[in-house]
Amino acid sequence: MIEIEKLHKRYGTFTAVESLDLHVRKGEIFGFLGPNGAGKTTTLKILTGLLLPTSGTARIGGFDVIRQGADAKRITSLIPDRPYLYEKLTPHEYLRFVSGLYRLDERESARRAATYLELFNLTDWKDELIEGFSHGMKQKVVMAGALLPRPHALIVDEPMVGLDPASAKLVKNLFAQLAREGTTILLSTHTLEVAQKLCHRIGIIHRSRLVAVGTMEELKARTEATSADLEEVFLALTGSRDTDVEAVP
Fold it and tell me: Residue 142: is its pLDDT beyond 70?
């Protein structure tokens, strides 16, 4: 469903992404992990058409994200790490706006919008201006908008930021259900517990290059990890095992 081949992105002499090859299967939740500045966000921006690659190709559902950008966007939704919204709109108005962008059937999209507003406990707030919402409420509005067109591919950057524990659990269960129904989810997060519990496979990018891909068991075997935690695997693959801190005088 998501195919990245020999992807490079350079800013002058700085290489943000180097020779990235990555395939994410239909119905798979794929964790895309790495330290700050490793190249995760750059890759996601290229996939969603927000950045042009220096070279290489990226396809979603067979559509080249550059040469067939409109077709790729039609089957893709993005949940960014920050809830960018038109804050003078209400959730109801925002979802109608999204429906118009994707040219959805009005009656069907209205039914789906009501379902997602109820799911995210936003029904009582659907006619209130978004500008007065908390970060977590805004994030839920973004998620409702991303899911409204029933995307084939869902690209997610730090989805749990600002969510309370109950909402975070709801989102994890929702992602698992979507994957079972065939939605492909590319999930970038620093919350390793979320990645370990949700993802079928995990890819780790470090210093602009993909250093490992596999299931949790495969990554553990590669690093000879002694615990069941993804944290040990991650630290081993990114050269960050020594994280002890001495007392500050």
Answer: yes
